Amino acid sequence: QGDDWWDFEYFAYRINSLGEYLRAGEDFIWYRPLVRWLSAISHTIFGQTFIFHYFFDIWSILLISSIVLFFLCSFKVNHFFSILASIIITIFYFGETFKLLIGRGLGEYYSAAFLIISSYLIFKYKSKMNTIYMFLIFLFGTLGVLLREDHYPITLSIIILIFCLDGKYLNIFSIFKEILKRYKIIIMHFVLITFGLSLIYIRNYYVSGAFIESSGSVHNNVSLSLNEKSLLSIYTIITGVGDYSETPRSFSLFLLFALVVSIVNIFRLKVKNENFMFSIFNLIIVLPYLYLLNYGYHPRYSIHLLPYSIILTFLTLKIQLEKFYIKLYQ
């Protein structure tokens, strides 16, 4: 064991063949609970094949690319550059080392798709949020978190998109004022997503009589303190490689640019609200990896970061790109 793909397939076997529909291979589920049941369902429908994972990974990629386009068009980025951003992210997913993860049954693309869907729903219906939209956001957000529990912080934070109004400016101080204005919906979002994550612990208690394992041990991807691996973990999520000796992947240019811009924007006193929010998203995705160590299957930890970095990059360069576009066609 120790290989995620093998583990998920083993758990799927125990669900389908041994009837462990709730236990699913272990008394205490350590990580990514939903993937094992997803694999079990796929094998039940399609047999011993990975066509389900190939099909839905590809559609998840196309969905992510489309929502990046929708976001940028909504932020009034030139249509040419909005489409270009969508094409770039599609090329990266299908042409870079991301392609090695398509169809592997790891749940990375599904989780990233659910995350970006939840983000867009909040943004799209921010001014007319109701029970139906809150439920959909809860549903997609919970599915994303249960596929990758390290998406929990970013899934909580996307609710700030309800403040994303045209012509508005924010900074680290004014964002708290906005939070106080709509604190009820923010608390509701936090409660719902936290409840979604807690389903795994409720299941643990039902199966084994305890919410967490009594030994108090943690998964080997979790570090309880900063150490020499923390910086390597950040380096890995930004570059898509697992060691300083390896050459960073081409998409790292966008991830690094977005990270630098995010840090700068946090300390600026006046930032367009969409730029400020996507700066927060980039930081909230990256910073937890100081304590979450990245092992294997690189660049899987960058999959959900890439769309937010691409959006922030094109928002940041919006004015310069539009000037270039005008000169090009004069």
Structural overview:
The protein is an all-alpha fold and 330 residues long. Helix content is 63%, strand content 1%. It has 14 helices and two strands, in the order H-H-H-H-H-H-H-E-H-H-H-H-E-H-H-H. The chain has helices spanning 4-17, 33-46, 51-74, 79-95, 108-124, 131-147, 152-157, 174-181, 183-208, 228-239, 252-267, 273-286, 305-316, 318-328; strands at 169-170, 271-272. The chain has a two-stranded antiparallel ribbon with strand order 1-2. Helix 6 crosses helix 9 (183-208). The mean pLDDT is 90.
List the main descriptive attributes of the protein structure presented here:
two-stranded antiparallel ribbon; 63% helix; 330 residues; 2 strands; globular
Number of helices: 14
Major β-sheet strand ordering: 1-2
Mean pLDDT: 90
Rg measurement, Å = 20 Å
Quote the beta fraction.
Answer: under 5%
Structure class: mainly alpha
Q: What is the ordering of alpha helices and beta strands?
A: HHHHHHHEHHHHEHHH
DSSP helix fraction: 55-70%
Low-confidence stretches: none
Largest sheet: 2 strands, antiparallel
By DSSP, the count of extended strands is 2
Q: What is the 3D form? A: globular
| Terminus-to-terminus distance | 61 Å
Write a brief structural summary.
This protein has 14 helices and two strands. The protein is mainly alpha-helical and 330 residues long. Strands 1-2 form a two-stranded antiparallel sheet.
